[in-house]
Amino acid sequence: MNKKMKLWISSVCMVATVSLVSGCGGSKPAEHQHNQTQPTGELSVSFKANPDKSNTGDPVTFQANVKQGETGITNAKVEFEVWKGTSTDHKQYPAKHISNGDYTASDSFKDAGAYNVVVHVYTDKDHKMAEGTFQVGDQKAEEHGHHHGDQKASLHLMLPDTPEKGKSFSLMGHVMDTKGKPLTGANVKFEIWKEGDKKHQFIDASEGKAGEYSKDYSFAESGTYHVQLHVEKPSIKLHEHVEKTVTVK
Q: Are 95 and 78 within 8 A, CB to CB?
């Protein structure tokens, strides 16, 4: 074998060796990325209002912290559902993620009284809720909801602000236990009747996500309607309901 041929073979071997080493080195980041630790543990939600007692017209910031185990969740969908006392007018506030699982929204309130808050947290695999309150002005707190015996669950009925006659929408009820966890396996019905009408319609709801019960529905006529969410679970002696009034256009 002449000198030129030996030199050519040597060069080919060196190139092959460099390519092989580069290929192996290039695979490491992908392998490292694949093996990154995913958050583990139970999804938890905490809430506070800042301040929890404010003057009328002053801003109130809603703050929620969302964690899985000890890791802050940064890509959840978070909403604050807020209403005053026994009012059926519930307002939804989409939250903005700030950092490390902290989400916020804010507003000011001109009416004095005790306000209720439910934090709704949605991830790819879970739905979690948490409750809280805050005070505006000096008006005393009002009782809300209707319960049989000791409270075993919190009920929240979701309706569109102005449903239209003949247009389908989703009746939805969120049910959670006293620890803020979704209550699953309950018997849930929607009772619907038009104001002044003695005929009441009862509709069975289906559970989708944990603690979320819904049914598609449309109102046949315009007018004022009452919608009552009934929740029963005999195994824990639960029978509770909550009612809202809605105007159909």
A: yes
Helix (H, G, I), strand (E, B) or coil at 24: helix
CATH 2.60.40.10 maps onto the chain at 153-248
Q: Which amino acid is at 189?
A: K
β partners of residue 22: none
Between CA 67 and CA 76 the distance in angstroms is 10
CATH of span 153-248: 2.60.40.10
CB 237 within 8 A of CB 149: yes
Quickly state the pLDDT bin for 75 (edges 50, 70, 90): very high
Q: 43-144 — its CATH code?
A: 2.60.40.1930
pLDDT tens profile 129-148: 788 889 999 865 443 444 44
H or E segment to which residue 192 belongs: strand 187-194
pTM strictly above 0.85: no
Sheet containing 77-84: give its strands across.
53-54, 127-136, 113-122, 77-84, 91-94
